[in-house]
Amino acid sequence: MNLSEQKKALIERIGIMQEKAGIQPVAGRIVGLLYVSDRPELTFDEIRETLCISKSATSNALNLLQQLNRLDYITFSGDRKRYFRLKLSRWRDLITKEIDSITDFANTLQEVVAERTKDTPEYNQSISDLADFLKYLHVELPKLLQRWEESRK
Amino acid sequence: MNLSEQKKALIERIGIMQEKAGIQPVAGRIVGLLYVSDRPELTFDEIRETLCISKSATSNALNLLQQLNRLDYITFSGDRKRYFRLKLSRWRDLITKEIDSITDFANTLQEVVAERTKDTPEYNQSISDLADFLKYLHVELPKLLQRWEESRK
DNA sequence: ATTCTAGTTCTGTAAATTTTGAACCAAAAG
DNA sequence: CTTTTGGTTCAAAATTTACAGAACTAGAAT
User: Fold this and answer.
1) Residue A48 · residue A1 · CB < 8 Å
2) What percent of chain A has pLDDT over 70?
């Protein structure tokens, strides 16, 4: 696949952003590629060739991204290839998952306060406040998402 | 410093959560320790001894956490030691920073759409939607923080 | 002036992660 | 049945990261 220099640069930038979000470099670039590619569905080999990576790296990354719910594939009868694509329409789910991990942290903070000495009331209060706000977020973010959906009808 | 088993376990759990947020194991444990420690300000050596880590690891991690604005230290005249503590009261700033990096991603997505072929209007729209929602978040999250502050007066 | 203290920096290495290449496998095609 | 295609799996190589240990430094204490 021949990509403009701008697109190649975008792939790398997106790749790095994805890396910072905790996924491996190759997987990050695959995400980037699928964002900029004219065709939103690419085959295993198109991905592998375009990014100049090995089959195993491609296979691993694609499977990882599928586990993370970032990717799926479609097929066409009479064609054995899989056509991989971003599950862009499911970004709401990913955000929901993020929100849940926020709550995990809030719960841990509440355990911390329960274990802490009572001799540091201000400090304990700061921790409680943070936990409290995170829980507030957990409740309010889905509402925000809903309001955004409505605002654009 | 002698810590209960519960506190030790909490330190490890917090450590892992911090790791998942992209910081190194030792730094994550330091954060955990400062959360659970009876005294919220600990010296370099207290941290090093309690966590059984080397001076260099301690120094590096403390400097990293200071760069990330997670930590600072106070001093007392007549005492050469630094007393390191979490910048807990500044968690609002950290959240603001998170929001900014969300915006970075939104901007990149808008660049992606600008570079994309116009032959995939639905796909382009999905990307625009995501960018749009992220920008909406950027505007609304600070308001949420504000409303939370008010709700607890 | 010498020694101590509190912490930093540098070098090496152990460990973890990522990636490759080659062998392999199952289903489809010939 | 044999070959080809599309992809997976495994072992090893390469890269990256985290950490330890020792040497070092600046300022304070003696």
Assistant:
1) no
2) 100
b/e for A90-127, b at 16 or more Cβ within 10 A? ebeeebeeebeebeebbebbbbbbeebeeeeeebbebb
Closest nucleotide C1' to the C-alpha of A48: D7
CB contact under 8 A, A38 and B119: yes
Q: How far is the CA of B131 from the C1' of D11 (A)?
A: 42
pTM for the model: 0.92
Report d(CA A138, CA A134) in Å as an integer. 6
Q: How far is CA A12 from CA A5, A27, A33, B112, in A?
A: 11, 11, 9, 12
- A105-153, pLDDT tens digit by residue? 999 999 999 999 999 999 999 999 999 999 999 999 999 999 999 999 8
Positions 47-86 of B with beta carbon below 7 A from strand D are: 52-57, 60-61, 78, 80
Q: B31-84, pLDDT tens digit by residue?
A: 999 999 999 999 999 999 999 999 999 999 999 999 999 999 999 999 999 999
CA distance B32 to chain A (A): 9
Which helix (H) or strand (E) element contains residue A78?
none
